[in-house]
C-alpha cells in the first residue's frame, strides 16, 4: 500500500514549474517550488493587497468607502471659511480706520488723534480720565514760568523729531511762499505760488497712499515716507502717480494747479505730518 504523506512532507515536496515554447516544446524557464513557498508567497501577496486596499480606502477612494468623509471635509471647509471671514473683517476694520485717519489729515483735524505708539508704550498703565486730574496752583505757576523762560524754546523739532533731521528733502516746487504755516489759524502747511504748469516733485523716497480728487483741496496726492512721515500735495491740476506706486525723491508726481474750493489762485499747498502731528515744512524743506 502507498504510504500517506503527512503535512510536513507535502510542504517540503519539491515541484518544478517548466515553461516551454508552444511550437517546438523547447524549455525556456524552470522554477523550483515547494508547498511552503507557495503558502509564503500567497500570504505576502495577501498582506500587500490588504495594505494597498487600506491605503486607497483612506485616500483616493475615501469619498466612496468612508461615510464620514464628506462631513469631515465639510467641517474643514467651514473652519477655513470662518477663519477667512474673520481675517477679512479685521482687514476691513483696519482699512476703515486707515481711510478715516487720512480724511482727518486732509481736513486738518487732529483734535481726536491718539498716537498708536504712545498707546502701546502705556498699555500697562491705568487710564485716568482728564476730568479727574486736578492742577494745583503751584503747578500752574511753574508751567507759566517755564513757558516764558528760554527753556521753552527747545522745540519738538530738536527733540521729538530727531529722526527727521538726518533726512534730505527735495524742494517740491520752485516759487515763493504766499502763506506760511500757522497752526493757530488751522493752516497746517505752506502755500507756494509758482509758474503755470510747473511740475510738483516728491520731497523724499516713499509710497503713494492717496491719489484722488477732494471737494475742498481738488487733486490731492499723499506719500508715506520712512519714520511715519507723510507729505501732502494739494490743489494740483493733474496727478501722475497712482496709489501703491513707489516714488523716488525728486521725481515728478503732479502739476501745480488751482483745483478745489479752498483756493484762490494757482499754487501748491504742501503739508508734512509725523506720527499724526502736523509739522512746519519750512523747518525741514528749503523753499
Description:
The chain has 287 residues and is α+β, with helices and mostly antiparallel strands. It has helices at 7-12, 35-58, 62-65, 69-107, 116-121, 137-148, 162-165, and strands at 14-20, 27-34, 176-179, 190-193, 199-201, 206-214, 218-225, 229-239, 246-247, 252-256, 268-274, 277-279. Strands 3, 4, 5, 6, 7, 8, 9, 10, 11 and 12 form a 10-stranded antiparallel β-sheet that branches. The longest helix is centred in the first third of the chain and has 39 residues, at 69-107. It starts with 6 loop residues before the first helix and ends in an 8-residue tail after the last strand.
What is the mean predicted local confidence, pLDDT?
79
Principal-axis shape: elongated
Biggest sheet features: 10 strands, antiparallel
Task: Tell me how many strands there are.
Answer: 12
Uncertain segments are 150-158
Helix content: 25-40%
Strand content: 15-25%
Number of DSSP helical runs: 7
Q: Which structural category fits the helices and strands?
A: alpha+beta
Query: Radius of gyration from the CA trace?
Result: 41 Å
Amino acid at each position: 500500500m502507498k504510504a500517506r504523506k503527512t503535512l510536513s512532507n507535502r510542504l517540503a515536496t519539491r515541484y518544478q514549474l517548466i515553461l516551454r515554447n508552444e511550437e517546438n516544446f523547447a524549455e525556456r524557464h524552470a522554477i523550483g517550488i515547494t508547498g511552503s513557498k507557495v503558502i509564503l508567497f500567497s500570504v505576502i501577496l495577501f498582506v500587500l493587497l490588504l495594505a494597498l486596499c487600506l491605503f486607497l480606502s483612506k485616500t483616493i477612494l475615501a469619498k466612496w468607502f468612508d461615510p464620514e468623509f464628506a462631513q469631515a471635509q465639510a467641517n474643514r471647509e467651514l473652519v477655513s471659511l470662518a477663519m477667512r471671514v474673520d481675517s477679512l473683517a479685521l482687514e476691513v476694520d483696519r482699512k476703515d480706520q486707515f481711510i478715516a485717519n487720512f480724511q482727518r489729515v486732509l481736513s486738518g483735524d487732529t483734535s481726536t488723534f491718539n498716537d498708536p505708539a504712545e498707546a502701546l508704550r502705556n498699555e500697562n498703565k491705568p487710564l485716568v480720565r482728564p476730568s479727574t486730574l486736578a492742577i494745583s496752583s503751584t503747578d500752574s505757576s511753574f508751567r507759566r514760568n517755564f513757558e516764558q523762560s528760554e527753556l521753552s524754546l527747545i522745540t519738538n523739532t530738536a527733540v521729538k523729531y530727531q529722526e527727521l533731521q538726518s533726512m534730505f528733502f527735495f524742494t517740491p516746487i520752485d516759487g515763493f511762499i504766499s502763506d506760511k504755516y500757522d497752526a493757530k489759524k488751522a493752516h497746517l502747511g505752506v502755500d507756494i505760488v509758482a509758474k503755470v504748469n510747473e511740475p510738483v516733485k516728491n520731497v523724499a523716497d516713499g509710497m503713494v497712499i492717496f491719489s484722488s480728487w477732494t471737494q475742498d483741496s481738488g487733486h490731492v496726492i499723499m506719500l508715506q515716507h520712512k519714520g511715519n512721515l507723510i507729505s501732502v500735495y494739494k490743489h494740483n491740476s493733474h496727478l501722475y502717480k497712482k496709489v501703491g506706486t513707489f516714488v523716488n525723491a525728486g521725481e515728478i508726481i503732479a502739476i501745480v494747479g488751482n483745483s478745489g474750493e479752498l483756493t484762490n489762485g494757482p499754487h501748491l499747498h504742501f503739508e508734512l505730518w509725523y506720527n499724526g502731528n502736523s509739522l512746519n515744512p519750512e523747518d525741514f524743506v528749503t523753499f
